[in-house]
Amino acid sequence: MPTKVRYPIGVRPLLLEEAARRRRLETRFVSMLERAGFDEVVLPIIDYADPYGGLLDARRGYRFVDREGELVTIRSDFTPMVARALAPSLSALPLKVFYRGDVIRCEASRLGANRELFQIGAEIVGDASSDADAEAMLLAASVARELGVRPLVVYNDVSIAASLDRDTLDSLKTKRRAGSPAGPFSKLIDGTATLDDIASFAPLAATRLREVQRIVGDRDFTLQPDDVDEPGYYTGIRFRIYDAATRALLAQGGRYDSLYGRFGTPAAAIGFTFTIDAFEEGA
Amino acid sequence: MPTKVRYPIGVRPLLLEEAARRRRLETRFVSMLERAGFDEVVLPIIDYADPYGGLLDARRGYRFVDREGELVTIRSDFTPMVARALAPSLSALPLKVFYRGDVIRCEASRLGANRELFQIGAEIVGDASSDADAEAMLLAASVARELGVRPLVVYNDVSIAASLDRDTLDSLKTKRRAGSPAGPFSKLIDGTATLDDIASFAPLAATRLREVQRIVGDRDFTLQPDDVDEPGYYTGIRFRIYDAATRALLAQGGRYDSLYGRFGTPAAAIGFTFTIDAFEEGA
Amino acid sequence: MPTKVRYPIGVRPLLLEEAARRRRLETRFVSMLERAGFDEVVLPIIDYADPYGGLLDARRGYRFVDREGELVTIRSDFTPMVARALAPSLSALPLKVFYRGDVIRCEASRLGANRELFQIGAEIVGDASSDADAEAMLLAASVARELGVRPLVVYNDVSIAASLDRDTLDSLKTKRRAGSPAGPFSKLIDGTATLDDIASFAPLAATRLREVQRIVGDRDFTLQPDDVDEPGYYTGIRFRIYDAATRALLAQGGRYDSLYGRFGTPAAAIGFTFTIDAFEEGA
Amino acid sequence: MPTKVRYPIGVRPLLLEEAARRRRLETRFVSMLERAGFDEVVLPIIDYADPYGGLLDARRGYRFVDREGELVTIRSDFTPMVARALAPSLSALPLKVFYRGDVIRCEASRLGANRELFQIGAEIVGDASSDADAEAMLLAASVARELGVRPLVVYNDVSIAASLDRDTLDSLKTKRRAGSPAGPFSKLIDGTATLDDIASFAPLAATRLREVQRIVGDRDFTLQPDDVDEPGYYTGIRFRIYDAATRALLAQGGRYDSLYGRFGTPAAAIGFTFTIDAFEEGA
Amino acid sequence: MTMRIAIPKGRLQEPVLAVFAAAGYDVPTASELRTRRLVFARRDVEWIFVKDCDVPVYVEHGAADAGIAGLDQILEHGCSAYQPVELPFGRCRMMLIAAPNTPRLESVATKYPRIARQYLDSRAIHAEVIPLGGSVELAAVLQLTSHVIDLVETGETVRIHHLELQEEVAEITPRLIVGRTVYRTATQRMRELIARVEEAKDVYITV
Amino acid sequence: MTMRIAIPKGRLQEPVLAVFAAAGYDVPTASELRTRRLVFARRDVEWIFVKDCDVPVYVEHGAADAGIAGLDQILEHGCSAYQPVELPFGRCRMMLIAAPNTPRLESVATKYPRIARQYLDSRAIHAEVIPLGGSVELAAVLQLTSHVIDLVETGETVRIHHLELQEEVAEITPRLIVGRTVYRTATQRMRELIARVEEAKDVYITV
Amino acid sequence: MTMRIAIPKGRLQEPVLAVFAAAGYDVPTASELRTRRLVFARRDVEWIFVKDCDVPVYVEHGAADAGIAGLDQILEHGCSAYQPVELPFGRCRMMLIAAPNTPRLESVATKYPRIARQYLDSRAIHAEVIPLGGSVELAAVLQLTSHVIDLVETGETVRIHHLELQEEVAEITPRLIVGRTVYRTATQRMRELIARVEEAKDVYITV
Amino acid sequence: MTMRIAIPKGRLQEPVLAVFAAAGYDVPTASELRTRRLVFARRDVEWIFVKDCDVPVYVEHGAADAGIAGLDQILEHGCSAYQPVELPFGRCRMMLIAAPNTPRLESVATKYPRIARQYLDSRAIHAEVIPLGGSVELAAVLQLTSHVIDLVETGETVRIHHLELQEEVAEITPRLIVGRTVYRTATQRMRELIARVEEAKDVYITV
């Protein structure tokens, strides 16, 4: 019988050149985040599934029952794990932490889906201000820039969704303009809504976006108010960073102010996560 | 229902000070190994169990059946994984590689057993000489020294065991001197055997040990010819490095010349693995 | 390596005499239940865990993640499975069904805990009357009698618990009389409560118990109004059948009027389950 | 969230009519097998995978790691389980046993593959004679007949395969006549081989087949000497029973004289297994 | 940057190109299309002509920025692209089909195994799905399967085979689909495309 | 039927028998108890004398109908018996103990591994539990473990070993325990036992 | 009983029918085949005409007794039928194809996802497989994927798209396939079919 | 460095100390041992007195360098220490015990649950193991369990309870045990200890 040469879905070894490339990128990320005042937390590669309730997508990650009969998942998303790890001992806030490591996903193949994903992320815990929003977004953009990539940051505030009626939300999810009557909702759908329009139905989000926009500016940053689908655990600002040249998705982030409360210690938080392998192609 | 605060057996998060300490040690290890000419390989945290046959201790590691119906293990020992990863593409030898990462064990509690283990290891592939043995042992000892620990390296050649009759082997395993008749075997058991005695029944091992002893010397290195129990995948030199002050086990290593052949490409190899958390106490 | 002779926790083969004994009992049970107008349903040995929510005790049964990534349990309790199987197609009510088969439990050892359990049970779906309660109880008792065992049926209505304050409930659970003031609650705790006393705080349960008591009588049936701990999915009458001679627990049963609703089709139901192996000792 | 109505692959409940139909068939089978002098053994629905080595097809059955870290399979084939259960206590031979129950398979869909399979089987342990071969085949055929089905029994002796060279075997597996030179092998391939031809290269099998043929006759029984692919654990006679009218496969069987030895007590054995659900369509 | 638009070859190709032409885009001519070429660069649009079932694949993976795809193919591929415009032609129904008096749904032949599986699961029907590549109705005729799930336009095929429609699985229309990444990173251009197709979509039926 | 009652040998034996005597039961005499006999039949009660940690085992499995057991043993065995009477003597505390200035809780020696594990889990402390059979405090002195969880009555042992009490894990009292099955099947008799012990329980301290 | 034989529509239909005719079977005429009928009863043979990829499905499930299928379809369906006769025409190769100088195999577009996966696994290549329905070579041209696995007859399509052949995945021939159950239960009839096709198989090329 | 040696309190304490004294070690005097002290520092040896079942725990975890432990405790703890010297006294047998005519092995009470489980597994007996803390034979008398596994020295306890010996589970002797780490890192010292105890081991019986 021949030795099986394949690896399980979602993982593979990195041999010499690839490993060196990953480590070079890792070293530069870590030093940038340290200079920015972030401290490392190290998160376990497995954890119980139950404490996360619906936070983790059960279809994405490896899951198994351990010897105690508990359902265990292999790490497939860092952000909820950071909250669970830090929540019990949160004290001096704000806290700036970063993390790094692999996430493993076993979902059926879509493009890039079954590549191993080495991620580095950072978050600011305990600062609910728009300054923190902007700090996180600017830091993420400058990290990309330092690695030689021109970032394109697309952002929005997902709390807008809470102000929308079901029809408008459905329209935004498919981008289909069912004959909704003229007005701010209709403008949101066809992409012509201004922050003043948004203020008419989601004043807090509009204010927040205005403040953030003022700080981050327009260069490399694009506000896209109709981008509200699938907020997941995000509760406010949500952003994605693309490589402006290749449109590769480099990082994702946003504000998740209710996540720490899930683990016993309410705290505002905003963060972002880079997928290093996306860079390995681009940079 | 209160949030479950515990983590699965074998893992826990490292918060700020601990994470920083681990990273400092990691950085020093990596730079020492790089200076010594070793290149990194990155190994997956999970792999199929079948290709390893009996190489992995099924009782130690997490195991589960994945969505393809295959038995998968979470990494509990690096050495066989390095061999499986490198074997298909071995070319220019000797090859010097290092690796780092967590191993996770779920075995029932013995001291230290259910701590998460962060390990860094290195190996020389494709050099069967005693010079390579000595190089690996000296490198490991100097790594420990640079981290402020006085190493005590205890070594032997486990191939001695193949020359022993069943009774002698049993005696060595319990250290009980059943009334074996005087002679080299009996001296092996009571600890008075010299390399000349060993040469009388295991000439190759004796020669190998003599050469290694000549290079590594006696300072910090102790030859212990009666230490032959449980060779596992080791086939020749086997060594353990203790902290001379605290007797904490810092690293293990040895020669495993038949491991690469298991994965299709026979190649000699010697290596060692440090458990970084052992240092965190000692250094 | 010797062949492993042991079987997994909770199962073992039955060889010739034991198998014959089980089949004799099975045949008699089935013919009694058929004569009483019950039809068989055959339930799968595995099922998804999610549809049951908290209905199954996760610690008792084998659980694993299947190839679709879904959490699956091996059958450890028939009653919820009957409801899930019948609920989608319930039509002509009342429906009288019986079932038979093994349940497998992997819980840590308590007496009898890790024996394989062959069970036969029956239930009346769609009849909320106290006549149905009494019918189920009388049928279960007569089944035991026909198998040569004098039954001792201990019963109560667990809905009493809903009328109790926390302190009284705690007292009932430990049977400790914290100095509760005299009154019906105190009489419930010290075992002197009459149905009139119970009527003062739980009138529906009292009426139900009175009607049931009228039908089943006192011979072999004991009303025990303080037996309210751990109702599980039971909502009304709850009974246990002991062998009057050996005190072995032969069967359990009761009313679970909210169980079918969990699976989409509300329907009252009362049933009982015999553990055949308990008989194998007693009969 | 709607209640999930689906069941795991390979299982589903049988409601009233289906359950009654299955039980009727089960009762008739059991009484026929009892009349023929067979005693029941009851086999667990789960068992460790390791004792079976390669005997079970890992791809077919559900497998999972239990709380002791052992790989467990859900029953997907009765025959090896019977051997493991009986082997430690085999005494007065020959022994005639039968068994019944579900087997569950989770393999990807081919025709009938993901139906639940209720099986009833029987075997004669400790009789290596061709009389036992014929007895098993005749019993199986008469069982089918009593259930109203005209059986078509196709049989062969798979030990023929051991006498064949690689090319002939490959030809038999695809039924492709690569230009093999004229002779008994070539006649085997094109279907014209007589028992005398077979005797020239596989004398024992030829003798055995001749004896069996003499007893079972030609009515309803067809010898097919070229049917040697995939013997699995079979070592001699191998037969399949089809419904002569519909060509549905009703039962499989054969001789597996090395199976009991795998579990510590060598014993000859021949048996067959009916899949009851195949009858539910046909009868 | 040019924009790459995937057009499904076959039945929908002509009306779809008519819509794009009406929307002001420079589309390949009929004679060009009679060659074997599948890729046509026009000013800032690259038109690619692929099999209808492959349009969602190209858009999902970002190899095309937009395309026209039937809901059948969108669902079958679990395609996450936006579906901003529903076209007013090519409407048909995905149906459960069987011979009259077929007793029980035991197996289903289909070109849409994923949709069929979801349909059966949602009804708790334990049936086997057998994927076929073509002539699906034949499967019910030749008793490969008890039922068939397939697209039905006129119902002619079903009648010819003496089968009958049993239940509607889904209503199918062609849609303009736009990839999420390109929508986020080239928002203005994509919104313009959507607006222009939205406005021109009725041209084919009104002509 | 006789009733079988399990009495813990040792420290609690004397006061417990005094309570049963005051409750009107015919208990073995002191001189009888000085023999090696462990089982005494008296009218309708069979007294059995077992190690304190085994009382919950006998009652849980129905091999004794009732008994006296400390909450420590009840919890350690996950005993599901009813605990109708709490006795007013023999009270002590289960404590977390360590040498002064012990930096971090890394491991715990204890005779109560189940209780210790639950205590640590409830506080999310990742520490090893090392079960010992006796002289548990010594483990902290000899640095087998960083901490100890043990019963503390007077605190004398802790002081002698220069250790300090750190946190209370549980308050421990002896209780009358009654098995669930016997309570259900011999209800009257068990209720009478409970009532009589309840009434007599103060005799030992008031004497 | 009649025997049902599945014929693949398209490219192979004509030579395959010629072989069956030469083998003495009464096959449908060319004019009959020009109708939309797919099923033809002839004496004791029922001919059914299905998509080439569906032939193994019909035979595997026993809905046809025998048929003609390419090895590509046999492998892709994991079809377990016997393959007693290899036809001497229609031979082609399944190839790994890419644009010149493509750096690394990262993803493969193919109509044969199962074969592609096995090929990649056997070489320990961690690449994504993207199933397509047609115009597979286009995927490499438009950079949907780095590579393509497809059947190659003349190589014309590969050249047109400026791609190059990299490695042979499998050699493909059409085969007579016979179901296992029918072979076992109607052995004589099936052996006769095999013998007649074996004898007649060269008719098409020798004509 | 001092060497720490663990001595089991109780039955073996006296002969064991006699062996160490004969081996030339300075052991605590009888009068010292009558105090409640458990730790005695002597020149380069620290003697610690712990419960017999805890000796393997101390040695396994390196909290003692060596000790004297019965094979029962070594096996029950899965202790991996070396066992270089077997002492010639204190020999006893671990036995399976039951009342005469007990029909079937259904459950076993024992102080050695791990040994009992391995014994039952090795014989494929599906029985429950019930761990007890003391008076184990009583369990069979009172029918808590059908059988008992316990150490038997003279058999007196078994006779008193009218039970009978059924099978030997293991032969038990006390052994000098030495931790693996200390053996590797202080080899000379440990070899000397072993040699001295080996030589002196017969003193107690020969005296």
User: How big a fraction of the residues of chain A is strand?
Assistant: 15-25%
How many H/I helices of chain E? 10
Order of strands across the widest beta sheet of chain A? 1-5-6-11-10-9-7-8
User: What class do helices, strands and sheet pairing of chain A give?
Assistant: alpha+beta
The greatest inter-chain interface is formed by: C-D, 55 and 54 residues
Name the helix and strand elements of chain A from N-terminus to C-terminus, one letter apiece: HEEEEHEEHEHHHHEEEHEH
Largest sheet of chain E: 6 strands, mixed
Folded structure, characterized:
The complex is a heterooctamer, with 4 copies of chain A (283 residues) and 4 copies of chain E (207 residues). Chain A is α+β, with helices and mostly antiparallel strands and 283 residues long. Chain A has 9 helices and 11 strands. Chain A is globular and about 60 Å long. Chain A starts with 15 loop residues before the first helix and ends with a helix. The model of chain A is unreliable at 109-114 (pLDDT under 50). By secondary structure, chain E is α/β, with parallel strands linked by helices. In chain E, the strands form 2 sheets. A 6-stranded mixed β-sheet of chain E has the order 2-3-1-4-11-5. Chain E has a 5-stranded mixed β-sheet with strand order 8-7-9-6-10. In chain E, strand 2 and strand 3 (45-50) form a beta hairpin.
Keywords:
heterooctamer; A: 283 residues; alpha+beta; eight-stranded mixed sheet; three-stranded antiparallel sheet; 11 strands; globular; E: 207 residues; alpha/beta; six-stranded mixed sheet; five-stranded mixed sheet; 10 helices; 34% helix
Secondary structure layout plus pairing:
The complex is a heterooctamer, with four copies of chain A (283 residues) and four copies of chain E (207 residues).
Chain A: H1 16-35, E1 39-40, E2 46-48, E3 63-65, E4 71-74, H2 78-86, E5 95-103, E6 117-125, H3 130-146, E7 151-157, H4 166-174, H5 184-190, H6 195-199, H7 203-216, E8 221-223, E9 237-243, E10 249-255, H8 259-262, E11 269-275, H9 276-282
Chain E: E1 3-8, H1 13-22, H2 30-33, E2 39-42, E3 45-50, H3 55-60, E4 66-70, H4 71-76, E5 82-86, E6 92-98, E7 107-110, H5 113-122, E8 128-131, H6 137-141, E9 147-152, H7 156-160, E10 164-172, E11 174-178, H8 180-185, H9 187-200, H10 203-206
Parallel strand pairs in E: 1-3, 1-4, 7-8, 7-9
Antiparallel strand pairs in E: 2-3, 4-11, 5-11, 6-9, 6-10
